[in-house]
């Protein structure tokens, strides 16, 4: 089977991570894959903010949990977080950011790094605290949070794929 197709079929979301950091060279390759994601009309209207700072990761996790009304860690202990932002003035902002998220997760898998898409980035960065972080990072005000891509090495069994649903593909 083609290696690219194999990676797409085998990647799973991981929900338990070791504290071990993704090495810089590997992280840089994953980020480059995100940079090369397709975008509407080639506008490249997304931004990625990446951190491996434990204090910032904990702060972002707490902010995300607050949106859920929870105190549990929605990042599952992952030591690396990539926040994907997209320009809300683009009609394809969510789609563009989603393509970046997909490229990040698929590239991570291809390099032996585990990942999970964590939702609620829009709500996190619509908050006053989130707006302040965006300002500190130089993220333009009109950019919305699309997702948090958490990365690391799993601290659990690798999940098996659920059976595919009938009717997923309609051929006409």
Automatic annotation (TrEMBL):
Enzyme class, broadest EC rank: oxidoreductase
Keywords, ordered alphabetically: Oxidoreductase
Keyword Oxidoreductase attributed: yes
GO MF annotation terms: FMN reductase [NAD(P)H] activity
CDD domains found in the cross-reference section: PnbA_NfnB-like
EC numbers, comma separated: 1.5.1.39
Pfam families: Nitroreductase (PF00881)
Domain Nitroreductase intervals: 9-153
Family under the similarity heading: Belongs to the nitroreductase family.
Protein name stated in the entry: FMN reductase [NAD(P)H]
Species whose genome carries this gene: Blautia luti
């Amino acid at each position: 089977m083609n290696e690219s197709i194999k990676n797409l079929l085998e990647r799973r979301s991981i929900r338990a991570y070791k504290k071990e950091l993704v090495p810089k060279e590997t992280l840089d390759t994953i980020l480059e894959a995100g940079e090369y994601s397709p975008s509407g009309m080639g506008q490249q209207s997304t931004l990625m903010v990446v951190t491996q700072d434990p204090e910032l990761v904990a702060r972002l996790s707490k902010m995300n949990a607050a949106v859920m009304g929870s105190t549990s860690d929605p990042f599952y202990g992952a030591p690396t977080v990539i926040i994907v932002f997209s320009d809300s003035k683009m009609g394809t902002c969510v789609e563009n950011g989603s393509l970046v998220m997909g490229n990040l997760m698929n590239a991570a898998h291809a390099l032996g790094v585990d990942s999970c898409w964590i939702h609620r980035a829009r709500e996190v960065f619509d908050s006053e605290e989130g707006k302040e972080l965006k300002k500190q990072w130089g993220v333009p005000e009109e950019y919305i949070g699309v997702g948090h891509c958490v990365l690391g090495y799993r601290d659990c069994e690798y999940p098996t794929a659920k059976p595919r649903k009938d009717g997923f593909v309609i051929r006409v």
